[in-house]
Amino acid sequence: MDRPVRWGVIGAADFARRHMARAIHAAEGAELAALATSDAAKAEGFLAFAPGLTVHPTYDALLADPSIEAVYVPLPNHLHAQWAIRALEAGKHVLVEKPLGLKAADFDAVIAARDRTGLLAAEAFMPPHHPQHIRARELVQGGAIGELRHVEAFFTYNNESDTGNIRNRAETGGGAMPDIGVYIIGSCRFVTGAEPVKVDFARIEREHGVDVKTQIIATFPGFTYGGTVSMRLFNRQEISFHGSTGVLRILCPWNANVHDLAAISLETAGGRVVTERFPTDNHYVHQVENFGRTIREGAAYPVPLEFSRATQAMIDMVFAAAG
Predict the structure, then answer these.
(1) Is 92 annotated in the active site?
(2) Residue 48 and residue 52: Cα distance in Å, rounded?
(3) Would you state the pLDDT for residue 1?
C-alpha cells in the first residue's frame, strides 16, 4: 500500500474509543487522523492514544476536511444510514457500525449512494475478517462434519441496570436484535453460505418498546436453525454447526479475545476433538486493513453491503414472525 488511508471518526462513542478507533490507529495502511465531537472531555479519551488527532467540533466539519479519505460512523442505530449517505456524498469512503439500517429497505439508499459515488461503503460486521470464521467456513463447507443438519447460536449479555444505554431505548433503534442479532444470523450465513427459507417461529420479550430477549427457529436449505439473543441473560457467546459426522463449535465468535479466547472446536467420531486457537488476531484491525486494501488495491471487500442487507432481511423476517 503506497500511503495510509486517513480516517476520521464521527462521534466519540465509547465503543469507538475502546475498540474501533484503536483498531484504526493500530492497523497497517491506516492513519487515525480526525475525530468529530463537541465534547472536549470525550475527545481526551481518544487523544490519550492518538495525540496528533485533529478534533472537529461538528460532524459536518469532519466531512468537509479534505485530508480525510474514510470515516467510521459509530452513532446510535437510527442515525447510521443517513450519515453513511452524507459521508459518501461528501466524497468519503464509509464504514458504518451495525446495524446500518433498522430494516432491509434502509440499505437501498446507501447502496445507491455507494454505486453513484464509486466509493466503498460497508457495515462494520467484523467476524468474516477473522481467521476463526474463515477456518470454520472452510471446515463446514469442506465436509469436515459431514452433512450439515442444524445450527445453534447464542449471544447474550445483561445491561438491565444501564437504563440510559442506547440499546435500551426505542427512540435510538435499541434492542437485542438490532444490536447483536446481526451476529447470530450473519455468522450462520457466512459459514454455511446458505440463505434462510423461512422463520418458523420467533418469540420476543420486550421492555419499554425494545426487544430484550428473542428466540428463533428457522429453516435453511438442508438444515434447521435455532438462535437466541438477549440483553437480560448472563454473558454467553457460541455458535455450533451440527453435522451427520461431527460438530464444529466457534467459541467466543463475536468478542474475540475480549469475552474469551477465540477458538474453534471440531468433534468427530470416537470422541476425537481438535481445537484451533487464535490468540493474537484482532478482527477490528483485520477489518480496517481489508477496507484499506479495497480502497488502495481494488481487492474485493469480504463483506459487501449486499451481504449485510440479506442479514437484515432475515432479522425483518424474525420480527414479522413474532408479530
Answers:
(1) no
(2) 10
(3) 62
